[in-house]
Amino acid sequence: MKTDLLASRHIGINEHDAEIMLKKIGMSSVDELIEKTIPANILLPEALPLPEPMTEYEYGQHIAALAAKNKLYTTYIGMGWYNTIAPAVIVRNVFENPVWYTSYTPYQAEVSQGRLEALMNFQTAISDLTALPLANCSLLDEATAAAEAVSMMFALRSRAQQKSGANVVLVDEEIFPQTLAVMTTRAIPQGIELRVGDYREFEFTPDVFACLVQYPNASGNANDYRELAERAHAADCKIAVAADILSLALLVPPGEWGADIAFGSTQRLGIPLFYGGPSAGYFATRDEFKRNVPGRIIGLSLDKYGKRCYRMALQTREQHIKREKATSNICTAQALLATMAGFYAVYHGQEGLTTIASRIHSIAAFLESSLMRLGYTQLNDQYFDTLCFALPDSVSPQQIRTIALSKEVNLRYFDNGQVGFSIDETTDLTAVNVLLSIFAIAAGRDFQKVDDVPLKSTIEEGLKRRSDFLTHEVFQKYHTETELMRYIKRLDRKDISLAQSMISLGSCTMKLNAAAELLPLTLPGLANLHPLVPEDQAEGYREMVKNLCDELNIITGFAGTSLQPNSGASGEYAGLRVIRAYLESIGEGHRSKVLIPASAHGTNPASAIQAGFTTITCACDEQGNVDMLDLRTKAEENRDDLAALMITYPSTHGIFETEIVEICRIIHACGAQVYMDGANMNAQVGLTNPGFIGADVCHLNLHKTFSIPHGGGGPGVGPICVAEHLVPFLPGHFIFGNDANAVSAAPYGSVGVATITYGYIRMMGTEGLRKATQTAILSANYLAACLKDTYGIVYRGANGCVGHEMILECRNVFTETGISENDIAKRLMDYGYHAPTLSFPVHGTLMIEPTESESLAELNNFVDVMQNIWEEIQEVKNGQADKEDNVLVNAPHPEYEVVANEWKHSYPREKAAYPIESVRENKFWVNVARIDNTLGDRKLFTTQYGEL
What is the C-alpha end-to-end distance of the chain, expressed in Å? Predict the structure, then answer.
């Protein structure tokens, strides 16, 4: 391995380390290990034909050249994306900080207090701005949030509406086209009809259960929806509104005029455009709907000693637990971007946001009056930032377009010949004068250059916001860079991330997110491009997308790829919709059943239900494999109605099942498709692939296998790769002329972070990717060999090997000592480690995935920690430690408890805080004691204003 290539820095195990590990496992070589782990009939006969790997320096030059191909015109297209100013203090200390971007979803709340507080700030800001009491901590984007709003209102229908089969949502024609497209994709399989028309003419007939509008609408007009809300509620219907979050600093918020749900994008709160994503969608609603809210909710609770703390609330709503009964398949959201948006609100406060919004509106008002004097007719009666003009007879849209492009300006051109623009936070006096010149030249008129735009409001009194917002002290205290920098640092010190230690979460692949992959994200050519600019202005992004899709096709063995899904669950849904569309095209649309192994991740059945299928569960045998007899029986019993099999490979149990080729053959013999869940693709890359195995479609978790960081719960990218016959049905977008099966607002989803995967593949190359997979399998088997004689390993493959992860047996421990897997997880925090995956996929166990990025020294330290915890368990078992008062049941031990004058435990402080020498050298101090989970659900507070 060349030392100047990324692989030598990304892979934590060298040749000498590998020899030591192989000896422990009992293998002579890595090749022998792979041959005994992966079935011989699915090993690729040849290496992947990927481009030669670039060095980090070469890639830096390459991606900078691609970014330079994108033309950064001043863009006023709007339509859900706006130029914004990302405060440098947030970019530097959050977006570019590995403590924030390498942390995991905050299931282990005691070591996640920093990002939980940051997400609570986000929720508080959203609740304040929308005037709705309950907000979640982000969704994937505005269009997804709209679809989730429709699904939620459908689930909230009254008994009478359910009994009568009410299935119509009235949708105002003035919503963004990308939002309508995603709503349509999601509504069709649920049997929901979207009836589009003018909101003023909505008729709330008995078959209607809800309505949905945009505020301000797609053309920029800010309508007064009070009367509509009253009519909807009188008919027992809900009303949802897509609201521009920044406009709510000036406009009456939805919660004050009767909306039941407000949703939208927070991209305007300091998040770069990234050619469409990622940015955080938001979702706010009334408190009585709390158990139906999609996505994750942060709530307050207390630790065991009464200290206020944060946790993810109402987790039993999640698809991991509810599976086919889930009302949403949401898994990954946009935590990192929500965190940044929350800090933007903290940094600016009410006064700052109002100032920004007022300046935007004032410029729009100034331009309205200026252009009307030039003969243009402005059509929006009430507006925030967007103006729409009817042109004089002497002026054509093409004339304006030609002049605008000559000045490197993008305006919005409506199908009916009108021209508009959306003012944003970056619009300054120079930009104002350029805009004036474009319209003046087109009209053949002179204009006077301006040197000032006075503050002005044209918003009528009835639409003006009167209520205060962001009144909590967190939005008052951190308006200087010094104070915000220190606040961000105080929070990040509370969290375990990859910057602290290995995160061994099974099925989550917490590998290195290399700086060379991430550094280009802030290049202006990548960060500041609007997704709806003309194609010739996005040549760099288009080239990168093509290259990446070609490479993913090679890696997966498929013919086509869509980057549009912006999470793994979104990828699952998109793949199933593609299968549905294909079956309908060949006259097999009646196929409605999906076969899913019992071991599957909870998103699989949840996605299948959301996509309009019914699920059939296939049993697993005692070795953790699919029960072949049960599979054959159920496939045959349902062969005429079977649409697909959803299967994870290697399995969620961490095993390469030997019968996978036969499984695919059985499903195909029934006329159905094979969907391969790519959650465990980190054990396949370069050694085998879904196409070679026999699958028809798979999704990939780029935030697992392909090095995009988890960001504390997003962003993620979940592209789908498909066989040749499915390519015509991949997700579309209105800018391509066909928006069928669209699953995200942007044409290429969260393409801004897909550049990370592009860098990973281009710098790793064929050999590097293959070695990474081999090393991931080697490291997992090494840990299994080290821990098998104490805890034990639940499942092994046919030759006694595990895949890239393994399940640690903890059930006997609980039976013998009363010490649970949760106690072990909490005790790991005292040693400076995040817990492995808890009680999934087997209750009472821990699932461990070390990845290829960890060094032998780190693996050995983790083994020492686990073995020391084993000895602590034996002390309880042998009566040396009190069953009710020991280091495990009391874990974690927060700093404030350890340094307190009074120590109430039967064991010494040193045993609690410094159990082994390596902890002394790198102590992570937990900020809170074990958190009361039931209290936080019984008393749900989702903003900073709550008091327990």
Answer: 57
Residue 16 CB contacts under 8 Å (≥ 6 apart), including other chains = none
- Strands 386-390 vs 419-422: parallel, antiparallel or unpaired: antiparallel
Do the beta carbons of residue 164 and residue 231 sit within 8 Å? no
511's CB contacts (< 8 A; 6+ apart) are 10, 682, 704, 707, 851, 852, 853
Alpha carbon 532 to its chain centroid, in Å, reads 22
Supply the Cα-derived Rg of the chain in whole angstroms.
Answer: 28
Instruction: Report in angstroms the alpha-carbon separations of 339 from 88, 119, 718.
Output: 14, 6, 21
Backbone angles phi, psi at 892, to 5 degrees: -80, 160
pLDDT of residue 318: 54
Cα separation values, 3 from 10, 56, 236, 764, Å: 11, 11, 67, 12
Which helix (H) or strand (E) segment holds residue 561: the answer is strand 560-562
How far, rounded to the nearest angstrom, does the alpha carbon of residue 280 sit from its chain's CA centroid? 9
H helix intervals, 374-411? 397-406
228 near 250, Cβ under 8 Å?
A: no
Strand order in the sheet with 806-809: 806-809, 845-848, 837-838
Among the listed residues 815, 818, 810, the one whose alpha carbon sits nearest the alpha carbon of residue 791: 810
Residue 46 CA from chain centroid, whole number? 34
Phi, psi of 426 (to 5 degrees): -90, -5
Q: What is the mean pLDDT of the chain?
A: 96
Residues 6+ apart with CB under 8 A from 485: 89, 93
Residue 756 one-letter amino acid: I
In angstroms, how far apart are the furthest CA atoms of the chain? 94
Torsion angle (degrees, nearest 10) of CA 705, 706, 707, 711:
-80
DSSP state of 95: I
Which pLDDT score, from 0 to 100, does residue 324 have?
57
- C-alpha 531/C-alpha 79 separation (Å) is 10
For residue 741, which amino acid is it? N
CA distances in angstroms from 872 to 150, 877, 881, listed in the order given: 51, 9, 8
Its pTM surpasses 0.85: yes
Give the pLDDT confidence of 891-929 residue by residue, as tens digits.
Answer: 999 999 999 999 999 999 999 999 999 999 999 999 999
Cα separation, 73 vs 66, whole angstroms: 16
Which among 699, 701, 700 has a CA at the least distance from the CA of 710?
Answer: 701
pLDDT in tens, 511-520: 999 999 999 9
**Which residues fall within 8 angstroms of residue 708, CB to CB, at 6 or more apart?**
513, 702, 715, 716, 717, 753, 754, 756, 757
Q: Which of 4, 78, 30, 67 is closest to 772 using CA atoms?
A: 30
SS (H, E, C) 484-498: HHHHHHHHHCCECCC
**Cα angle 301, 307, 312; round to 5:** 25
Chain-centroid distance of CA 653 in Å reads: 24
936 neighbors 308 (Cβ within 8 angstroms): no
CA distance 899 to 236: 57
Taking the C-alpha atoms of residue 305 and residue 301, their distance in angstroms, rounded to an integer, is: 11
